[in-house]
TrEMBL record:
Protein name: Integrase
Domain spans labelled Tyr recombinase: 109-292
Range of residues in the leader sequence: none
Pfam families (UniProt xref): Phage_int_SAM_5, Phage_integrase
Keyword Coiled coil: no
Organism: Parabacteroides faecis
UniProt keyword terms in alphabetical order: DNA integration, DNA recombination, DNA-binding
Residue ranges constituting the Core-binding (CB) domain according to the UniProt record: 1-87
Superkingdom field: Bacteria
Similarity comment text for this entry: Belongs to the 'phage' integrase family.
């Protein structure tokens, strides 16, 4: 019999997200449920037992665990969403939401972009004797060269994403479904050719066709581990991650006075509401021009072969 307490309802929502293929949200739901179950040491509460006082106590509990402000906010926002979806028309729903007085103010996060000089050093590295680390470096470089494409989207690229005789890279973001189109620069083509194989489904040798979400997360962890090693090799003050190169492209584009709207479209953002309202969609050539401005200085550092 399925559990009818609130934690059971949370688990049901997590399972529903996984059935729908929304693994990232399901992972977040699982994390929130795990924390909530640790917080609730007694029998799981019913939906009606989730009160404003309980929510405030959970917030304090998360803070005392040393979680970052934005993490706590994310968990509480997720808990609220699950509460609202659990019994939308049920009798257990309270007239006043226990989250009614909750105010979530996000903390400004530290910028993760790295200077272009660091990216030049990575492009110059000779890692032939360490092919796995070379691949990690090349994937990071491809993020920068391809308008900040996220790691999850790189590893899912196939030959079908190269359209118009291979001159345009076209893909939909895994996270939002937004369509991204850009010109395939010479530097991007160099990295694609380095790893492309007719015997493999994906352009880069990271995923297998039947890979699960958990296995993908292991690949992401491996990528970040190698980037950490590269950070140590280059004696960098901060550890590189896959996000560093996405932020680096956006920062460098902004520094070169590329219009915000072009940057927004290139990154596939859906939250740039102001630019989406009054800026029409840019042609591929506009994004290509922006990308050339950002990445042209890297080409001479990439090793051939």
């Amino acid at each position: 019999m399925k559990r009818k307490d609130f934690c059971g309802l949370m688990a049901t929502q997590e399972q529903d997200k996984r059935r729908r293929g929304d693994e990232s949200t399901a992972d977040l739901y699982r994390a929130v449920r795990n924390h909530f179950e640790c917080f609730i040491t007694d029998v799981g509460p019913a939906h009606k037992d989730v009160t404003a006082e309980l929510v405030q106590d959970f917030q304090l509990w998360l803070q005392r665990k040393g979680l970052r402000v934005n993490t706590v906010n994310s968990y509480l926002s997720c808990l609220r969403a699950m509460y609202n979806r659990a019994l939308p028309f049920g009798k257990g729903r309270q007239e006043r939401s226990p989250f009614a007085g909750l105010r979530l103010k996000r903390e400004e996060t530290r910028k993760r972009a790295v200077p272009v000089e660091v990216i030049k050093k990575i492009a110059s590295l000779d890692l032939k004797k360490e092919p796995a680390k070379q691949l990690a470096a090349d994937l990071a470089l491809f993020t920068f060269l391809a308008c900040g494409i996220p790691f999850v989207d790189i590893v899912h690229l196939t030959g079908e994403n190269l359209v118009e005789n291979g001159t345009v890279l076209e893909y939909r973001r895994q996270k939002t479904g937004v369509l991204i189109r850009m010109e395939v620069s010479a530097e991007m083509q160099m990295l694609i050719d380095r790893y492309r194989s007719a015997e493999r489904h994906y352009l880069f040798p990271v995923l297998s066709e039947d890979m699960t979400h958990e296995q993908y997360k292991a690949c992401l962890a491996t990528e970040n581990r190698y980037l950490k090693d590269i950070s140590v090799m280059l004696d960098l003050p901060e550890t590189l991650t896959t996000y560093s190169f996405r932020h680096a492209w956006a920062s460098e584009a902004y520094h070169l006075h590329v219009p915000i709207g072009v940057i927004s479209q290139a990154l596939g953002h859906t939250s740039e509401r102001t630019t989406r309202i009054y800026l029409k969609e840019f042609d591929v050539s506009e994004v290509a021009k922006a990308n050339r401005q950002v990445s042209e200085t890297i080409g001479c550092y990439l090793r051939v072969g």
